[in-house]
Amino acid sequence: MRLLITGGRVIDPASGVADTLDVLVENGQILRVEKESQGSGIRGQGKKPLDRMIDATGKIVVPGFIDMHVHLREPGREDEETIATGTAAAARGGFTSICCMPNTDPVNDTASVTEYILEEAKKVGRVNVFPIGCISKGQRGEELAEIGELVSAGCVGLSDDGRTVMNTELMRRAMEYATMFDVPLLPHCEDRLLSAGGVMHEGRVSTELGLKGIPSVAEAVMVGRDILLSEYTGARLHICHVSTQESARLIREAKARGVQVSGEATPHHLILTDKAVRDFNTHAKMNPPLRSADDVAALREALIDGTIEVIATDHAPHSSAEKEMEFDYAPFGIIGLETAAGLILTEFYHTRLLTLATIVERMAVSPARILKLKHKGTLAPGADADIAILDPDQEWTVENNWQSKSKNSPFVGWKLKGTVVMTIVAGRVVWEAS
């Protein structure tokens, strides 16, 4: 497959590129990126015919986004999401690579589950799928999973996401093993004794609604513990779905000391507060919960200054029947792959809080670096031809017309500015706006 993308503004922070350029793709790789006027000009080359020429005039051409935190639900909960539907949602959102968390059924704590996910992704997936393996067997926090086996099978990181490894000794050993196999740990940081029974952020709103709250310190104490263990063991640590100002401060201070720690924030934690729960909307119920306005402000500051290096969705599909239960009993989580780009462009680019280059850094470059995904997160010649084409000024309204199998989003009806018009994976168009 030979593609030529013409006339678009190419933004590739990894290469220091921000200019109107043509991009030539051949055999799944970036072949050339240059101005038409340079050399012989790749538009006018006649040696090989093009399979397609894509006019990106007025659009932005960027490395495909990489989501470090996605729940595909398969195997086990195919009623909520499948690898086919989840990767279709990713493609629509401009994500060309996603990392799937291991809390499936069965959980991904053995090579056989990892291999199943990878084989299924090859058959039906629209984007690259990188499995995250369990830290502990069965995610029970009692015994380490076979970490070497998981990494050999294709896992790029380790997590018990959805559950905290409360056993500090076990977490220390997990970090030592992760260091041996050169993969990061991506812990879910929540002291389950402090958060027990909680369904939303502990604060004024939870008191007014009479709902059991989850205090911000429940996250922060585990962030602090894992940072200290990382500092002690030398392990690479990536904090999932950071939601509190205390966590952001701990990460900032650790970075200043040279600890190998990074963190991610989700669009919903960067935009919504616990006030979204006032009408008992279960689509606003997530874990960690939506926090206070002060927490949101601190997360935004951390994202802007680079303390938080990654924007991830924590895409967590649930069936309508589950989300229609009473608030106390409804499951945590929302879908996010198809709205992430629009929300970030609307809330951060058009308000001039972040440049396009910084957004690409947080959504493509940093994830590729943290996960050590070779040839991704850049449009440099020789890189994989994983590309997203954006229209930063197109206005649209979020509707219930999802590629995802589930519909649990609090953003339905929101008017956004900026969208993905095309997604290309390995030189093949996998999503194109009609």
Quote the average pLDDT: 96
Q: How many separate domains?
A: 2
Q: What separation lies between the terminal Cα atoms?
A: 22 Å
By CATH's scheme, which homologous superfamily of the largest domain applies?
Metal-dependent hydrolases
Description:
This protein has 434 residues and is α/β, with parallel strands linked by helices. The protein has two domains: 110 residues, Urease, subunit C, domain 1 (Roll); 308 residues, Alpha-Beta Barrel (TIM Barrel). The protein contains 13 helices and 17 strands. Strands 1, 2, 3, 4, 5, 15, 16 and 17 form an eight-stranded mixed beta sheet that branches. The chain has a four-stranded parallel beta sheet with strand order 6-7-8-9. It has a three-stranded parallel beta sheet with strand order 12-13-14. β16 and β17 form a beta hairpin.
Give a quick set of tags describing it.
four-stranded parallel β-sheet; globular; Urease, subunit C, domain 1; 434 residues; 2 domains; eight-stranded mixed β-sheet; alpha/beta; TIM Barrel; 13 helices
Fold topology:
Elements: E1 2-12, E2 17-26, E3 29-34, E4 52-55, E5 60-63, E6 65-70, H1 83-92, E7 95-100, H2 111-124, E8 128-133, H3 147-153, E9 157-158, H4 168-180, H5 192-195, E10 200-201, H6 204-209, E11 213-214, H7 216-233, E12 237-239, H8 245-256, E13 261-265, H9 267-271, H10 293-305, E14 310-311, H11 320-323, H12 340-349, H13 356-371, E15 387-397, E16 415-425, E17 428-432
Parallel strand pairs: 1-4, 1-5, 6-7, 7-8, 8-9, 10-11, 12-13, 13-14
Antiparallel strand pairs: 1-2, 2-3, 5-15, 15-16, 16-17
